[in-house]
Amino acid sequence: MRHDNGTIGLLAFGAASAAPLPVSMSLSDPFQSQLARASAELQARRPAAAETLYREVLAAAPDHGVATHFLGMCLVQTGRVQEGLALMRRSLDRLDGGARWRHNYALMLAQAGDLEAAERELAGAAALEPQNAAIFQYLGMVRQSRGRAREAADAYRAACALAPGNAQLANNLGTALNEAGDRPGAVEAYRRAVALHPGYAVAWHNLAMCLAGAGDDPGAMDAVRRAIEANPQFAPAWQQFAELFAGARFAHWDADAARDLATAMTRAEVDAQPMAAAAASLVLADPLCAPAIAAVTRGEGARWLAPQRADAVATPLLLAALHNALVTDAALEAFLTRLRAALLAAWRGGALAASQGVAELLLALAKQCFLNEYVWDESPEETAALPALESALRGGAEPHLIALYGAYRPLADLAGVRPGADAGPAFAALWRITVEEPLEERRARPALPVLTPIADATSRAVRSQYERNPYPRWLRLPATLRTQQPVRQTLRALFPRIDLERLAVPDAPDILVAGCGTGYQTAVTAARNPRARILAVDLSLASLAYAQRRARELGFANVEFGQADLLELGALDRRFHVIECAGVLHHLADPLAGWRVLRGLLHPGGVMKVALYSELGRRGVVEARALAASRGLDGDLGAVREMRRLVRALPEDGPAHALSLSADFASASGARDLMLHVQEHRFTTAAIAAALAELRLEFLGFEITRPEVRVAYHERFPEDGEARSLARWGEVEAAHPDAFGGMYQFWAAVPR
Question: What is the pairing mode between strands 533-538 and 743-749?
Fold first, then answer.
């Protein structure tokens, strides 16, 4: 849920989110004019300029309380936190400790992370000025950040009573009530907020999330549509829209839903993958597509490919789905595979008309097959026809024929073929992603720093897998993940009961991403921690080159990349405040040996985010790996295709068949990583507890993305508010084997 105190964002107390209460200047103050100018600079978020003016006042009047107070604020906001807080604390005595001065001091304490002191000052300010709604608002925010949602709700109620027409306060009351477990109360508060301000996108968004959590999907969808109508540029609402469609399946055609899905899938700030299955069900129900699907399924593809029919099936939804997400639906994949074969057969027979519909379909198929790394099955006849198509392209190729070849093989490997200058923007976009970007990555590999040798046999095998199949090939970083949320703030939000002061995590930390792969999580970390210095390492140069290109495209200048084996990182002459190691340790021959190396790279008080496979959650993978071993399948493309056929043929009620519904199953690198990895270990909560004890690491808690999982824990153990018992989490997982989705994600700390 999102608080709102004038900005859209997570709960924060920086200069951008918590403005000081205005304080009237004395008309008899000889520095009135200069103080007014300084205040204007501070309100305009130019604390350095304001600092100069306040220092000029203090040079003439060293005991000036107002100048001392606001100079302290300037220092806090420019990183000189303790010096600034000392000045503000000293100013309180000179200013008689008035409510608004204590309020400002509290905001800076909160920004510095001292929430206990901030709450104390705000409570004192509220007692001095009980009619000030803003003080109660921030008191609620601090209490909520400290994990005391019910007390936060009391403060917000007081603020709402003082300012009953304030929609932001009603919204914030809703967030506190929702966290406190009072979902009906939260819904009521959000509805009050949107009644007061019908164009309030944040409150509509929060209402949608609350209704979705209550199982009211129609109500949630209506609310998220209202959020989008209120602010079409509000990225969280679009991403929520995508996620609400994740569970939707359409048995009948719905033109409005198709339009909305097509629009959402093409938005650059949205991850379209959650919508893939819903889009597939609509495409299969589309009356324009149904005749084509039936004809191609009957083997009548060549007859069906008359231009007017092909143009009809190139619907906005189908094209949007092919360009922006992996196809996860087996029936749609089967149709598209046969359609691709029919298009190739039409070319061989000289009957492939380059109509607009055919051209659009070929471009979309080429993009989809590039994304899935040519994992779709192809017949011997198709394979045999490709050399002739490649030869024909060398004589001067039409864009649609290049796209036809690109639906089967990587265009970046097609030497000597270039499109004409008049190929058009749609083809240029395809050429950019399928040819120019891969070639750019190949050129970048030799220049990547090599930080350690890679001598371990298992590490070499894993490197070989990811050189051939970098994973995952991601398209977008959703705008919802680009919001600044430094590690300290993340930890405070995840584990509000933990005293962060005993952890050594500064506002500008040194972060190691150990095993960054293609850089998705590194990009999230860089976006959330713009002041951090980040080193991202991986075994695979192909993965690193992809990660480096994406980081550069997204404008992240605070990341350096290098090739390294984490087993050898102990020789690195650097230490880190934060280490992220997600989905890596379980691919080592000895996970604990690698974990021990990483532990040695942390500063005392440093923290580590780790992700490890769950034995219970991966039971379907265990079945699939056993099936692969029984067939002697390795990790080449033929083996991946065979595994996909075998798993789809398994009983639908079995754990392995469920793998066929995942996005990983829909690409060659994903399916190999999922079912044919060269090395995999799995863990239990008991094994994690034993490892943490041996490494002398403190378990801080799991990152739980599904609220119902945390609810299941607290229903089973209502007396345990911290939810930090691995033994108890083991009981919860035994009752709910899919609680962690196959992967434990948790934080641990090095004791000081």
Answer: unpaired
- H or E element, residue 691: helix 685-695
pLDDT > 70? residue 21: no
Residues 696-729 have pLDDT tens digits of 999 999 998 887 888 889 899 999 888 999 999 9
Number of domains in the chain: 5
Residue 277 CA to chain centroid, in angstroms? 20
CATH code for position 564: 3.40.50.150
Going by the DSSP 8-state scheme, the letter that residue 432 receives in this structure is: I
Q: Are 497 and 427 found together in one domain?
A: no
Q: Which two tokens stand for residue 417?
A: 């073929």
How far is Cα 443 from Cα 571, in angstroms, rounded to an integer?
Answer: 29
315's torsion region: left (phi>0), alpha (psi -120 to 50) or beta? beta
Separation between Cα atoms, residue 651 and residue 15, nearest integer Å: 57
Any residues with CB less than 8 A from the CB of 652 and at least 6 apart, and which? none
Question: Helix axis angle, 99-111 relative to 133-145, nearest 10°?
Answer: 30
Triad 521, 526, 530: Cα angle to 5°: 160
Please indicate, yes or no, if residue 283 is contained in any of the structural domains.
yes
Same domain, 287 and 423: yes
Going from the C-alpha of 332 to that of each of 3, 286, 290, 746, the distances in angstroms are 41, 12, 11, 37
Report yes or no on 724 lying in a domain.
Answer: no
Residues 273, 228: one domain? no
Q: Is there a domain that residue 716 lies in?
A: no
- Which sign does the torsion angle of CA 248, 583, 528, 150 carry? positive
Question: What is the average pLDDT across 285-298?
Answer: 82
CA nearest to 583, candidates 378, 745, 402, 751: 745
pLDDT at residue 67 greater than cutoff 60: yes
Domain CATH code at residue 210: 1.25.40.10
Asked if 184 and 197 sit in the same domain, the reply is yes
End-to-end CA distance of the chain: 33
Task: Supply the pLDDT for residue 44.
Answer: 87
Last residue of a domain, one of 79, 110, 145: 145
> Taking the alpha carbons of 169, 174, 179, 180 in that order, is the dihedral positive or negative?
positive
Give the C-alpha separation, 548 to 7, whole Å: 32
Tell the burial category of 615 from Cβ atoms under 10 Å away from its Cβ (0-12, 13-18, 19+).
middle
166 and 48 within one domain = no
Per DSSP, the three-state class of 154 is: helix
User: Domain check: are 185 and 274 in the same one?
Assistant: no
- Decide which of 106, 121, 145 is a domain's last residue: 145
* Amino acid making up residue 568: E
Are 631 and 587 found together in one domain?
no
> What whole-number distance in Å separates Cα of residue 279 and Cα of residue 284?
9
Gap between the Cα atoms of 257 and 263, Å rounded: 10
Same domain for 175 and 140: no
- Write the pLDDT tens digit of every residue in 425-437: 999 999 999 999 9
Q: Which residue range is the domain that position 183 belongs to?
A: 147-232
Q: Is residue 723 part of a domain?
A: no
What is d(CA 386, CA 364) in angstroms, rounded to the nearest whole number?
19
- Convert the pLDDT of each residue in 621-669 to its tens digit: 999 999 999 999 998 999 999 999 999 999 999 999 999 999 999 999 9
